[in-house]
Structure formats: C-alpha cells, structure tokens
# Entry
Amino acid sequence: MTSSTGRALLLLAASDLSPADLRTFARWIERSGPYQLLDAIDRLRHTADDTQRAVRPSAAGPDYGAPIAKSAGLTARIEQLLLGEAGLTRTQAADLLRSELRQETGLFDDIPVLGKISFRDWVERVTERIPESVLLHVVTRLRNKLVHSEKPDWPLRKTQD
# Structure
C-alpha cells in the first residue's frame, strides 16, 4: 500500500461513515471510475476554497462570532500533543510550531510570535489566521517527528573548549 493510499484510507477510517456507507462509496467508485472521483474531489476543493475566501476573517480583527468551544478543544489538543506528549516547553512548542507553519503555509508575517501572552491565547491567535485542519495536521506531524525521533538514553552535555 502506497503512502497516498494509506492517507486516503486513514481519512475514511477517521470519518463517521458506517460500513454500509463505505460499501456504497466503494461501489460508486467502481461504477463511476477514477476520473469521476477526481472530478468530484476537484469540485469540492473549489467550493471549499471559495467558501474559505468568503468567510476568512479580515485583517481588522478577530472573528468574535467564531465558536469558542471548537477552538478551545483544538487548543487543548495542541497542548496535549506538544506540551504533554512531546515534552516541549511552551516557548519551544510555539517556536517550533511557528517555524513549521511558516514552511507549510508560506505565511511569514501572519503567524504571531508567542511573546508574553499565554500559550492558549497564542494558539487562539494562530487559529484566526490558519485553518484548524492545517494547524492540527502540522501539530500532529511535529509531535510524531519529536516523539519518534531517536534520542540517546544518556544525552551528553556539550563541553566548552
């Protein structure tokens, strides 16, 4: 199984589709063929892009109509992944995440620095500029890279010569 096939299957597994829904979907792909599947995905992506452009918060300030509970859950998840599981400090987590987001999105001035605000407030600011799905994807990838990297059991101190 290729990594792209695995990612597609992972998305289906993470969805709330029932086994009957998945069978129906598989039969539709079989009947329609891969080109109609690609066309349907392309139409959905264009619709999502148009919607995102239409509802993107203005540079004038945050969207106070945004659901707080959803972003609060995202903030807690980010704290769990980076601070809890990866064992980073708040400053390390913010610096690494900012760097990864800048590479992923190409946005350099839009991603704020941590500064003297709380990590939770910083994440809330970041979610005003970066879609939650992109943010969670980058956080998960960063956490996996840190957790699964080979670390020596007995790290050596740097010596000064």
